[in-house]
């Protein structure tokens, strides 16, 4: 099955994100050739894809048997129609890796990086031949569950590469957004960082516990955010006047709250407090089991959203 002209995807790097991408692409009926230099990488990859497979909804013809592996990234990229890179979050490593991918992949093949924060222009400096086909294709963890992909072009990225990436991610069931500027952390991680800043500050100031803050989000605004985004939710909270009414009447006090938000530094003491708070909150809970339960709820939510007409 072809997805926007893509039949074979190279998954470069098979850590947590790479495994999840590989499983997702396979479930969408594509051929996947994965590569990773780590000892035992192929065995771990096949084992983890097999463990994820029962949680997926494969299309007709999809099978884990369409997964190939090579330790050579050039070999993986040579016959690929799309490259999804998931290597370490270090610019020097990216440059070395992308130089190999740039030399091996066909000139028309998009080289997308899953980088959560590096700029595409910086990564593209590792591609001397065709920097115009480098984009960020940042998923949210786990990619086989969460639909979002942030597509970020760099200074030298061609519009055609952006169009191809958006079309491909859409064809494999993702919800891509396109950034008009490249920024460290892109969009979603920057929004998360803003929330974490205040959450860490509230804990540091003794306003609320780690568990209470998790409850405040997961049992409060997080429920609405999982259905509609912050602007649409704010619009609905304004009644007939919508977001214009909210901004007129609640804008001034909100600006005062902004001025009062905490500025924090991750000191050893604060880190220890946060870690102890999470340990206390999740005491006796197996993280893998909790992640599985979380993902099951996410699948149910996504199924419900698919059956409901939403923006």
TrEMBL record:
The keyword Oxidoreductase applies. One of its GO terms (molecular function) is NAD+ binding. Pathway: Lipid metabolism; butanoate metabolism. The keyword Chloroplast does not apply. Residues 185-253 form the 3-hydroxyacyl-CoA dehydrogenase C-terminal domain. GO terms for biological process: fatty acid metabolic process. PANTHER family: 3-HYDROXYACYL-COA DEHYDROGENASE FAMILY PROTEIN (PTHR48075), 3-HYDROXYBUTYRYL-COA DEHYDROGENASE (PTHR48075:SF5). This is 3-hydroxyacyl-CoA dehydrogenase.
């Amino acid at each position: 099955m072809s997805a926007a002209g893509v039949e074979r995807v190279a998954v470069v790097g098979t850590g947590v994100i790479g495994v999840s991408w590989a499983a997702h692409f396979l479930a969408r009926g594509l051929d996947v050739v994965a590569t990773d230099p780590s000892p035992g990488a192929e065995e771990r990859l096949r084992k983890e894809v097999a463990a994820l497979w029962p949680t997926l909804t494969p299309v007709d013809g999809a099978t884990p048997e369409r997964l190939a592996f090579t330790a050579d990234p050039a070999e993986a990229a040579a016959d690929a129609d799309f490259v999804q890179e998931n290597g370490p979050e270090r610019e020097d490593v990216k440059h070395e890796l992308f130089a190999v991918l740039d030399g091996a992949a066909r000139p028309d093949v998009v080289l997308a990086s899953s980088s959560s924060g590096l700029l595409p222009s910086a990564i593209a400096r590792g591609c001397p031949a065709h920097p115009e086909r480098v984009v960020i294709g940042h998923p949210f963890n786990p990619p086989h569950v969460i639909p979002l992909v942030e597509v970020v072009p760099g200074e030298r990225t061609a519009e055609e590469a952006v169009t191809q990436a958006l079309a491909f991610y859409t064809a494999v069931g993702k919800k891509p957004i396109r950034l008009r500027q490249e920024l460290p952390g892109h969009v979603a991680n920057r929004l998360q960082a803003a929330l974490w800043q205040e959450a860490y500050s509230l804990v540091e100031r003794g306003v609320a516990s780690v568990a209470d803050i998790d409850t405040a989000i997961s049992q409060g605004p997080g429920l609405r955010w999982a259905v509609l985004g912050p602007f649409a939710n704010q619009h609905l909270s304004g009644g007939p006047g919508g977001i214009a009414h909210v901004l007129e009447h609640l804008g001034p006090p909100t600006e005062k709250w902004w001025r009062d938000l905490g500025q924090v530094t991750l000191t050893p003491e604060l880190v220890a407090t946060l870690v102890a708070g999470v340990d206390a909150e999740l005491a006796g809970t197996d993280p893998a089991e909790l992640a599985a339960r979380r993902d099951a709820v996410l699948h149910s939510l996504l199924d419900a959203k698919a059956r409901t007409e939403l923006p």
